[in-house]
Amino acid sequence: MAQTDRVRQGRQAGRARLRDVPQRPLHADPHPRIAEGKAPTTILAADLGGTRIKLGIVRDAAVLARETFAAESQDGLARQLPKIAAAFATLCDRASVDMAECTAVGFCYPGLTDPGCRRVVAAYGKYTDAPTLDLVAWGREYLALPVWVENDARVALLGEWQFGAGRGCDDLVMVTLGTGIGAVAMIEGRLRRGRHGQAGVLGGHFTVRLGGRRCRCGNIGCAETEASNAYLPAIAREWPGFAESRLAAEPVIDYATVFRLAGEGEACAVAIRTHSVQVWGAVIVNLIHAFDPVRVIVGGGVMASADTILPALRDYVSRHAHTPWGTVEVVASALGDDFALFGCEVLLRERMQPTGVSR
Length: 359
Ligand SMILES: [Zn+2]
Prior knowledge:
Blueprint: H1 3-12, H2 14-20, E1 42-48, E2 52-59, E3 62-70, H3 81-94, E4 105-109, E5 112-113, E6 120-122, H4 135-142, E7 147-151, H5 152-163, E8 172-177, E9 181-187, E10 190-191, H6 223-226, H7 232-237, H8 255-263, H9 267-291, E11 295-299, H10 306-320, E12 329-332, H11 339-352
Parallel strand pairs: 1-4, 4-7, 8-11, 11-12
Antiparallel strand pairs: 1-2, 2-3, 5-6, 8-9, 9-10
Helix pairs in contact: 5-11, 8-9, 9-10
The structure holds zinc ion.
The site of zinc ion has 6 residues, from loops.
């Protein structure tokens, strides 16, 4: 039977399948641990990146099939949903997986989601229509599967915790350095989500410069406005000596360019690199003071320059974090590009098992 027929049948069976899904009790712990004993599951994962959408069929930390296509996130998510549904059907066929036997769909979203992980609450320049979309209804109608959606940094941390740089540790903070600055915290094996879903994930919007630039979030002097790819062209233009620098002649001003020129000793790039590392260090120290982690994981595209960034961050943290008990580890993420696919599997186990997840 073709996968499209299975999808059609699945739509008809959608309500019955949803009734089969274990529902969380009304007063369940909002920060559950993941249960001992990992039941084998096959899930559909969608990583909604700013430039790429990556889809995968994941089972027991193995990606059975994957596909990537251009996100065109500036044009919204609604226009991509039919393509995502069709691609999932194709991937299931390719992996010889019956979609009707899949457990659920996990979306990894670059913005705020509600604490129950059922809808997007706020968008920041990418897929700006997402808060108006009912992804749960979409999953029920087009895939006959339950849908959960979670902030991308939280999904990354779940993946790292179970399969990557966070293994063996239940007290973690993760920071992602890229277009923006993502953050997330886990305390005693539980993700912190908060009443409105924004606990821990606004590390990029810590105030690091009083009277600084206006941020897209409405605040002034956010870390993102001082050290992220989104604001780097503006940061560079305002930097003393920029107009005469080699950086000014570059066609693209991003951290790949800044770290390359800084490595060659270009003065303006060196100064911006130093400033940026201090900003990222300050964000990490703030997160350490707020969440008391044992280990900090640093990921994101900017970590292509990890050889330079990690030692500098470790030095900053060792000099500035107040941790009388010892030293917080600062490590690079281990899952790289596939963090969302693995993280979605952990997320769905956490969401669908009332007893939660443990390592
Ligand atoms: Zn901000």
